[in-house]
Structures are given as C-alpha cells and as structure tokens.
Amino acid sequence: MLSYQHAYHAGNFADVHKHLTLFAVIDHLLRKRSSVTYMDTHAGRGLYPLAAEETAKLQEYREGVARLWQARERLGDDLLLGDWLTALGRMQSRAGGLDHYPGSPWWLSQRLREQDRLMLFELHPGEHGHLAQQALPDNVQRIHGDGLQGLVKRLPVPSPRLCVLVDPSYERKEEYAEVAEAVCQAMRKARHAVVLVWYPLLPAGRHRELLEGLRDGGVRKIWRSELHLREPQQGERGMIGSGMLVINAPWGLDERLEAAVAKILPLLGETSRHRGDWWVGE
Ligand code: SAM
C-alpha cells in the first residue's frame, strides 16, 4: 500500500540536495546538442504550493529551501547556486516571494529542449492525478505505473543520451534492493546512462544494501554525495541526512557540487557536513 505523499516534505534539505545535484547534471548534459531522454521513475506531484495543507503541516521547507532563499544574494556568487535560485524564483507567483517548491518533474521539464524527451512515472493514483493536471511541455509523457519496471522495459531509448532519476520513498525496506536490481538491469541495457539515485541516511544504515547491490551488479564509476545533518540521538530512527549517487557522473560535476554544497552547509546547522567521493565498493 502506498501512503507516502511528498507534499509533507517538499522543499526540505533533502529536496535541495537532490534537485541541486539534478540541476548540475542537466547543466552538463545541455553542453552538447545531441538529444537526451530523461526518465523520472518516482515523479510525485510535480509542484508544491507551500501553503497547501500537507506542506504547511510540517513546514520542512523552512529548514531547507527557505534558508537558501533568504541567503540568495550571497549564494549567487556561486554560479550553480545562482542559476538554481534564479530558476526557483521563476516558479514563484510574485517576485521576491517563496510560495511554491518545484518537484523533479518541474526541474526536468523546464530545461527540456525540442529534441529531448521526458517520461514521468508515478504509481500513486492521487499523486498521478495531481501530476496529470499540470501544464507541462508536449514532449513530457506522464505514465501511471511502476517506475522501476517502466524504466527497464523502455530501454534502450532511441536518443543518443539518457538520464534517469530514481527517487523512491523507501516505505518498504525491500526497496533498497529493488532499486539496486533495477538500476543494474538498466545499466546493462544502457551502459552510457547517467543515473541519479537518492536515498535517505537513517541511523539503521539501510542504504548499504543499495550500495552493495550496485557493487555486486557490477556498476562502477559512481559519484557519491552524502549530506549529514547530525549524528543520531539514542533511539532515533528518522532521517539524519540525504544521499545521492550519480552513475557515469559527467566530468567536473564533483567539483561544482562540492563547492556549492560547501556554501550551503553553514545554513543547514552547525553539525552538518558533506562527504563527496568516488565510490569504489568498500
Ligand atoms: N521525485 C519527486 C521529486 O523530487 O519531487 C519526489 C518523489 S517521492 C520521494 C516518491 C514518489 O514515488 C511518491 O509520489 C510515490 O507515490 C511514488 N512511488 C512509490 N512507489 C512507486 C513505484 N514503484 N513507481 C512509481 N512511483 C512510485
């Protein structure tokens, strides 16, 4: 049963980490003219008004995107953060305000060129219903179905390049292994694909199963970025950080992201730290 709704968490520090990484990857892909197929296996609703009942309930965005928004003039010195914040500003209903947070479908669809394609998979009927109502470009396809199965089934794609975002809610602990299995299958069908995988950092360290599954499936050349907010308190079970993997990361992506994340760390709290490395399967 699906109960997770991203609207409760929209714009939190993990969304910032995920979408900034995605934005940087798209930047690199746009340096060449050849077409790109993008797939977002777990799309969510696409756009989150911050005043919506669900988002206003927890207000997680206050400790995430709102902190960057308040510091946007200073952060604009960094080209990546400056461009990301400018793109975010374009989504707001009034200049200078922050009233919406865009989800991955928006971050992807806004930068589609005529020659590119985007497939958005969403399994939850209600979330898919929200997504279906949004005004997105014609080269965006919305698919009500399982994103991991859909990804593997639709490969290879006709375009020379492929970029995939895998962003599950990990409501079930089996999902870590399922994601690893689907990504390994996808990499066998499309070796050149740039694949981004998000995972939560939990005190239980469940994401290790994901990493081990990728290693055992022979996936190499992974850039790993982990944003740790704090050490877990005794008995704590919730999210203490956010992890991103980028398989076949474009050259130079690591340095750009390290520099940008270093600038936002002080905004996320005294105990926050970042680890970026090329994961080799330890
Ligand atoms: N990627 C979105 C973003 O960045 O804005 C957030 C996605 S949210 C973390 C995960 C979404 O995946 C939820 O909307 C959930 O309904 C959906 N979902 C769960 N299992 C799925 C599956 N097997 N295939 C497709 N979507 C799924």
Structural notes for this entry:
This protein starts with 12 loop residues before the first helix and ends with a strand. The protein has helices spanning 13-29, 53-58, 65-70, 72-75, 79-90, 104-109, 125-132, 147-153, 175-189, 207-216, 253-264; strands at residues 36-40, 47-49, 100-102, 117-122, 140-144, 161-166, 194-201, 222-228, 241-247, 273-279. The strands form 2 sheets. The chain has an 8-stranded mixed sheet, sandwiched between helices. A two-stranded antiparallel sheet has the order 2-3. The radius of gyration is 18 Å and the shape is globular. It is of the alpha/beta class and 282 residues long. Strand 6 (161-166), helix 9 and strand 7 (194-201) form a beta-alpha-beta unit. Bound molecules: S-adenosylmethionine (SAM). S-adenosylmethionine binds at residues 2, 4, 6, 18, 41-44, 103-104, 121-124, 127, 146-148, 167-169.
Summary tags:
alpha/beta, RNA binding, globular, binds S-adenosylmethionine, two-stranded antiparallel ribbon, Rossmann fold, 282 residues
List the helices and strands and how they pair.
Blueprint: H1 13-29, E1 36-40, E2 47-49, H2 53-58, H3 65-70, H4 72-75, H5 79-90, E3 100-102, H6 104-109, E4 117-122, H7 125-132, E5 140-144, H8 147-153, E6 161-166, H9 175-189, E7 194-201, H10 207-216, E8 222-228, E9 241-247, H11 253-264, E10 273-279
Parallel strand pairs: 1-4, 1-6, 4-5, 6-7
Antiparallel strand pairs: 2-3, 7-9, 8-9, 8-10
The structure holds S-adenosylmethionine.
